[in-house]
Design brief:
α1 packs across α7, α5 packs across α6 and α10 crosses α11. The chain is an alpha/beta fold. The strands form six sheets. An eight-stranded mixed β-sheet has the order 1-14-13-12-15-17-19-9, sandwiched between helices. The chain has two domains: 218 residues, Rossmann fold (3-Layer(aba) Sandwich), CATH 3.40.50.300; 223 residues, Rossmann fold, CATH 3.40.50. The protein starts with 23 loop residues before the first strand and ends with a helix. The protein contains 14 helices and 22 strands. Bound molecules: adenosine-5'-diphosphate and the ligand Nc1ccn([C@@H]2O[C@H](COP(=O)(O)O)[C@@H](O)[C@H]2O)c(=O)n1. The site of ligand L45E5XJ5 has 12 residues, from loops. Adenosine-5'-diphosphate (ADP) binds next to α1 and α5.
Length: 540
Amino acid sequence: MTENVFKFQPRTNSASDSGSGEDADVQEADFMTPLVVQTDFGCTSPQPKTPKSPSKGGTLKKRHRAPPGSAKPEETRVLHTHGRRTLYTAGRPPWYNQEGQLKNAFVIGLCGGSASGKTTVARKITEALDVPWVSLVSMDSFYKVLSPEQHDKAIMNEYNFDHPDAFDFDLVISTIRRLKEGKSVNVPIYNFATHAREKTMKTVYGANVVIFEGIMAFTNAELVSLMDMKVFVDTDSDVRLARRLRRDIAERGRELQGVLKQYMKFVKPSFEHYIEPSMRCADIIVPRGGENDVAINLIVLHVHNQLQARGFKLRSKQAQSSHNGQPMPGTLRVVEKTSQVCGIHSFIRDKATSRDEFIFYSKRLMRLLFEFALSMLPFKNVTVDTPQGIPYTGKHLAVDKIAGVSILRAGETMEQALCEVCKDVSVGKILIQTNLQTGEPELHYTRLPKDIKDHYIFLLDATVATGAAAMMAIRVLLDHDVPEEKIFLCSLLMAESGVHTVAYAFPKVNIVTTAVDKEVDADFHILPGLGNFGDRYFGT
Ligand SMILES: Nc1ncnc2c1ncn2[C@@H]1O[C@H](COP(=O)(O)OP(=O)(O)O)[C@@H](O)[C@H]1O
Ligand SMILES: Nc1ccn([C@@H]2O[C@H](COP(=O)(O)O)[C@@H](O)[C@H]2O)c(=O)n1
C-alpha cells in the first residue's frame, strides 16, 4: 500500500458555499486509530472495600491553573505513517456490502492501569495491522463534565477520576455501538490540564477496526459485550507510576506532589479494586505493554483472520453484475423526453459542442431536472388571494428543509442550478475518488449541514455509471440518519447498471434523471454517454 495522504481544500468561492458555511460540519477523512472487538460475555468486578466515588461537591475556593501550554488536548494525539507501514490511506474504502448494508467493525477493547501502555499498544496494533481504516477511541473522551465544586477538587487532586462513576458509560456504549455499526460519531475531546471537554467534538467515522482503550474498559458488561477481542495490558506497578509521573508532569500540567497524592489516594486503590480484577475478561494479556512484540503480532494475526471474511471488492462486482432484461425499478423517474429535452441532450452529447455551450445547455438541463425532482416532494393545498381579491386554490411545498449534497467534483456543477430553482437550500459536499490501484471508490471528505437528518436531500452527481460513488454517498447520508426515502439521487445521465445497483442496495431512494443509457464500458464510461462531464465542464 502506498503512502497517500490526501489533503482536500474545500472551495470557498463556489455559489454553493453560501448556504453551507456556518451550519456545516466539516469532516476530513478521519484516519484513525482504535479498534474495539466484541464478545459474548460481560464481566463485573468483585465488590470488596470500595474506593471513594468521585466527589459530588466541595467548598474549596482556591484554583490552581495549569501552566499555559503545558498540556495539549487529546486531539493532538494523531497517528501518522511510520516506516514502511501506512496507517491511514487517502480515503475510506467501502464499509458496506453490495446490498448497501453495513458490515460490523471488529472492535478491540484495550484495558490496563493508568500509564500501562494502552495507547502505545493500540498504536502498535494499528501500525502492524496495516488495514485501510482503523479508529482509535479513548475512554478519556468520556469523562463526565465536572460541576464547579468537582472541578475545584480536581485541581487539588481530590477528585476521583479512577472510579467508574467518573465516566459517562451511556455515551461510551452508544458511541461504540454506532462505530461498530459503521456509523459516524462525534466524540468529545478531553483536556487533562483543564479537567474539561473542549468546546469542539471530533467526528470519527465507523471503521473496519475500532480500538477502544481505557482504564475501565472492562468494568461494564454491556460495553464488554460489544468487544470482539479483549486485550489487557499488564505492566508492573512501579513502571506505571514512573511513567505516569513523567507523563503527567510533562504533558498534563501537573506537579510531583499532586501526582503522588492522586496516585496513592485514587489511582492505586482503584487499580486493585476495579482494573486488575477485570483482567479475567481478557482474551489476551500483554505483559510489559508496547515492548511485547510477540503478543502484539499474535493479536494482529487474529484480527487479520477475522477481517478476511469481511473484505469487499464492490466496484468490480457492480460492473460484473448483470441486470440485463431486468425492468427499471419503480423508484426511477425520468424527465419526459420532450423535443426540448432531446434538443438539449443533442448539444451536450455532441463532442463538437464548445465548452461555453456545454455549460449553458447543461445548466438548462439541470434546472429542468430539479424542477422535476421538486415536483416529487410532498405538497399541501393552499388558497391565496390574488391582487383582484379572488381566491386561488393552489399548492405549497409541504417540506421545511431541503439540502443539496454534491458528489465532488462533477456534482458541484449542479449546485448553482439547484439554488436557482430552490430557495433557501442548504448545501453539503462529499468527495469520493476512485483508487486507481483497487478500482474502489474511496471517501475523502464530507461537509454536511449539521441537522442533515431533518432535510430532504437532493444528492447531486452529473452522471452515474456503475453507481459505486452514488452508493457510497447514499451510505454516508444514511449513516447520518437521513431516512432513505428522503434521498433523491439527481443526475443528468445515468447508465442502466448504475440505476439497478443503487435501486438494489437502496430500494427507497428516489432516482431522478433526464436519460438512462444502456451500457458502461470497461473504463466505467456511459455509452453512448456524453464523455467525461467534469472534463468538458471544467475544460480540463
Ligand atoms: N514500553 C515503553 N517504554 C517506555 N515508555 C513507555 C512505554 N510504553 C509507554 N511508555 C510511555 O508511558 C506513558 C504512558 O503510556 P501510554 O501508552 O500513553 O499509556 P496509557 O494509555 O495506558 O495511559 C507515555 O508517556 C508513553 O510514552
Ligand atoms: N482530569 C483528569 C482525568 C483523568 N486523570 C487520570 O487519567 C488516568 C487515565 O488516563 P490514562 O491515559 O492514564 O489511562 C486516570 O488514572 C486518572 O487518574 C487525571 O489525572 N485527570
